[in-house]
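Example record

One chain of 284 residues, shown exactly as stored in the release files.
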Amino acid sequence: MRMDTKRFGGSDFKFKAASVGYLGASGIRLISRLSPTDPNACNYCAVYNHGGVALSGLVAELWISRIRTAAFGVATMEHLVNPGPLVVALFGTGKIAHEIVPMLKRALSVAELRVNSRRSESVARFVDAHAVAPFKVRAEPDGRRMMDGADLVITLTEARSPLVFPGTLKRGAVVCSMGGKNELDYGVLLESQRLIVDDVDFASEVGDGGSWIAQGHLTKDQFTARVDALACEIAGKQKVGRLSAQDTIVAIVQGVAVGDVAFAIHALREAERWNKGLLVELPD
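Predicted structure tokens for this chain:
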């Protein structure tokens, strides 16, 4: 649910709710920001333990949301890629990209990580920050050379025009689109054998799926029919993501609210266990 109050001098509010049954709790994400990339955005998750009606806690979740997005992506990629060691091409050097690197280290066998961004200085800082990674991390300013022989391509940017084009992916590669706008040319989907998304409705509105539909390449129904599996089905081994080593796979993974809520529940319970945080008693 969204509420835009900017015409009254306020901000843009978003509310997303989810229930995490196995943790015995539910939550509501509360997001307030002036723009989608507002660095001063205010994100919290209200957590409610099942079995009662009282608010259990309010968890600040800007960092949690970055962790969730990175974790959702890597948890999907590890079930789609061919066996390593892998050459990984990463477009983007933002805060979520920084979280992805240690997760790639834990989940995949990586030989080399190539990094590309619009600003060379941010790439240099990124490479320096991850110099201790157990695989080679290097800058690659040429976007097309980035993908030469890459087994896994990750796009995590605010790009409004495609970064990945038809004919640039090797057979059997996985391209994981995690940005909110248009990072993949529609021709990339046409050349692929499999399409994985984490939520069909969201993917048809935001990111590459929404862009392809808005550009008139296909309808929402056609996009829905093209989806082979959901990311949760792949991670839960309910469906197979890769049918052959030669499959080129497009994954659109942006994360869903249940992930934020689950992480917030865990954070709140850990804070209670370590007696951290601020307990506020409201008068009757």
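Notes: Residues 66-253 form a domain with the Rossmann fold fold (CATH 3.40.50.720).
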